[in-house]
TrEMBL record:
GO terms for biological process: isoprenoid biosynthetic process. Belongs to the FPP/GGPP synthase family. SUPFAM superfamilies: Terpenoid synthases. This is Polyprenyl synthetase family protein. It comes from Cryobacterium adonitolivorans. Keywords: Magnesium, Metal-binding, Transferase. It holds the Pfam family polyprenyl_synt. PANTHER family: GERANYLGERANYL PYROPHOSPHATE SYNTHASE, SHORT CHAIN ISOPRENYL DIPHOSPHATE SYNTHASE. It comes from the Bacteria. One of its GO terms (molecular function) is prenyltransferase activity. Its cofactor is Mg(2+).
Length: 373
């Protein structure tokens, strides 16, 4: 078993343990609230734990003398402190909260091949025969579930910060976590803005606006921030943090570009989402901006007319997919992925990142951007 695999297992265990302790608090208020805990546990049971693993690699990237645990801190089987496991778990719980809210915003039926949170609550309402609209109950309950998970992520973060080597490192890790929350919320707003405001924006600006969404909604949050938070907890220097930022941002961009391709062309069995889901949701991604640049007027009008229609038929999705391919946008996105991965790896050259961690980061760059459709 690799260290990354064992780290993932530890995060699973830490999240389960944390939810168990919160279950007694919640159910003491009312037995009716047990469903919040049950749905939290189900929603947190899957996923690749990339953010947890990046946080751990960020922590490991700092030379060991700088990350000695605080007095009384306990070491895990990997030699990491309980602190980095709690921090990694906090990132995963925050991610779950973001997904709950994101699925409401996008009106998504599924997440990781299972019903999204608001659909679970909607089904509960229907099964129990309660009054009112099942959809309204589902949305309202899922908003509250997301809020609950946000609070829980902060509690786990505080537990992790208690194991920092000194208070300065804890404060820096907290600042980076706070910055991540602000940036991803801003990026989420920019994403929904682009779905609606693109029509009034200059054509020449659409690509830059789509890139801006990638940077703040995903790239910083998925790769850069976890790396920096983990390293900050370990007492990293400014130079060490700058190296991880220079690596994490382009890799995060490449990661999201790959995800955008999967959102249009991916196999539902792999992605856990229906094929073409981003087309139904009307996502104005870099892929779409590049496609519009390469299309004639008639094809561009077809894309604009169909994109964002929730009732797209399989034939219409296939037609849109073919138009996008014929525009050359897929090849251009593949090139952008390769360029961003190369930029990320170049940031590690000559850096003082621990040698073994540099190799793991290089492997991860391939893992999170690999073509799987």
């Amino acid at each position: 078993m690799t260290e990354s695999t064992r780290l993932v297992d530890l995060v699973h265990s830490r999240i389960d343990e944390f939810i168990n302790t919160r279950e007694s608090i919640v159910t003491t208020i009312s037995g009716d609230l047990a469903v919040l805990v049950d749905f939290s546990r189900q929603f947190l049971s899957g996923g690749k734990r990339f953010r947890a693993q990046f946080a751990y690699l960020g922590w490991q990237s700092v030379p060991a003398p700088s990350r000695h645990p605080a007095a009384g801190a306990s070491a895990g089987v990997l030699g990491e402190t309980a602190g980095i496991v709690a921090i990694a778990s906090a990132l995963e719980v925050f991610h779950a909260a973001a997904l709950v809210h994101d699925d409401i915003i996008d009106n998504s039926d599924t997440r990781r091949g299972a019903p999204s949170a608001h659909r679970r609550f909607e089904s509960l309402h229907g099964a129990e025969g309660w009054a009112g609209s099942p959809a309204d109950f589902g949305r309202a309950s899922a908003i509250l579930l997301g809020d609950l998970l946000l609070g829980w992520s902060d509690e786990l973060l505080d537990e992790g910060l208690d194991d920092a080597p000194d208070r300065a490192s804890a404060r820096r890790a907290r600042r980076e976590f706070n910055l991540m929350r602000t940036e991803v919320t801003a990026g989420q707003y920019l994403d929904i803005l682009e779905e609606r405001a693109w029509l009034t924006q200059p054509e020449a600006e659409l690509l830059d606006r789509a890139v801006r969404v990638i940077v703040f909604k995903s790239a910083k949050y998925s790769v850069q921030a976890p790396l920096v938070i983990g390293a900050a907890l370990a007492g990293a220097t400014d130079d060490q943090l700058d190296t991880l930022r220079a690596f994490g941002l382009p890799l995060g961009i490449a990661y999201q570009l790959r995800d955008d391709l999967l959102g249009v062309f991916g196999d539902a069995a792999v992605t856990g989402k229906p094929s073409g889901d981003d087309l139904r949701e009307g996502k104005r991604t870099v892929l779409i901006a590049l496609a519009r640049e390469g299309l004639d007027t008639a094809s561009r009008h077809t894309v604009d007319r169909l994109l964002g229609r929730p009732d797209l038929t399989p034939d219409q999705i296939s037609s849109l997919q073919q138009i996008i391919v014929d525009s050359g946008a897929v090849d251009r996105v593949e090139t952008l992925i390769q360029q961003n991965v190369a930029q990320a790896l170049a940031a590690l050259d000559g850096s003082d990142v621990v040698a073994g961690v540099g190799a793991e980061l290089t492997d991860f760059a391939g893992t999170v951007t690999r073509r799987v459709f």
